[in-house]
Design a protein that fits this description.
alpha/beta; Rossmann fold; 2 domains; 6-stranded mixed beta sheet; 5-stranded parallel beta sheet; 9 helices; 11 strands; elongated
């Protein structure tokens, strides 16, 4: 995926160039990502302000009636933590973290590193798996189960958790209104839409989007910068975040020297 960066509204005032990082992922994912950031940028000022709250639904799923499982998020895997996993049950998982969680539960994992289109192409490139089960949240994209069905691959969709919308925290709201640089990594189209609905000033924000779909609502919004991750995974977002943070921080020093 191409990297897209546009820069504007940069300031020469050193006191205004110390960025704050606002994480809007669900609490656990936000904390995990914060820990990853601090491992590289221990001086970073990080605000956790989840815009989604994950609520698991007790699944009534008998995996023995299926021949394989599809996970498009780590939350989907966590929802199955207390279920009986048949021995050598194959699964497809999007992204390395989701794949690792599924592997730890005992699934035999085939990893897809792309989007829904890549996942569907990967599944259809293999011999038929009989009955597949896509486990996801209430809000999901890609119509994976229905598209597989249309292609001749049996697939059922099961909702295992809800993603309840939250408002920005007072600390995050204050950060936006201070007019200092803000770095905003965003990981889902729904989170992007929820952020837009908060009606906060974004002109000093450096947005880092997991994908083009996540970036889309901000294409016509005045931002300081918009970056689309080269690959749709958290490691790529983290690498972009580090680069943007270091670029902004370098403005503190005369002539850009650190």
């Amino acid at each position: 995926m191409a990297l897209e960066v546009t820069l504007s509204n940069m300031t020469d005032n050193a006191s205004d160039t110390i960025p704050e990082i606002i994480l809007t992922r669900p609490q656990k994912a936000a904390q995990d990502f914060s820990d990853q950031i601090r491992a590289v940028l221990p001086m970073a000022q990080i605000i956790l302000s989840p815009l989604l709250q994950i609520k698991f639904i007790k699944p009534t799923i008998n995996l023995n009636t299926f021949d394989g499982v599809i996970f498009t998020s780590a939350n989907g895997v966590e929802a199955m933590a207390n279920c009986e996993i048949p021995k050598n049950m194959p699964c497809f998982a999007v992204g390395p973290k989701t794949a690792k969680k599924a592997e730890n539960l005992g699934f035999v994992v085939t990893q897809s590193s792309g989007n829904a289109d890549d996942l569907i192409a990967l599944i259809l490139s293999r011999p038929s798996f009989g009955r597949l089960l896509h486990i996801s949240g209430e809000h999901t994209r890609g119509n994976i189960a229905s598209r597989l069905e249309q292609a001749g691959q049996s697939c059922t969709h099961a909702i295992a958790y809800q993603q309840e919308a939250l408002s920005l925290s007072p600390q995050a709201l204050a950060s936006f209104k201070r007019g200092k640089p803000v770095i905003l990594p965003l990981f889902s189209p729904r989170t992007a839409q929820l952020l837009m609905a908060q009606d906060v000033p974004l002109e000093h924000s450096h947005m880092i989007a997991l994908s083009e779909a996540v970036a889309e609502p901000f294409k016509d919004i005045k931002l300081s910068s918009l970056t689309v991750a080269e690959a749709p995974n958290s490691d790529s977002v983290l690498n972009n975040l580090i680069s943007v943070f270091q670029f902004i921080s370098s403005l503190e020093a005369p002539n850009g020297d650190t």
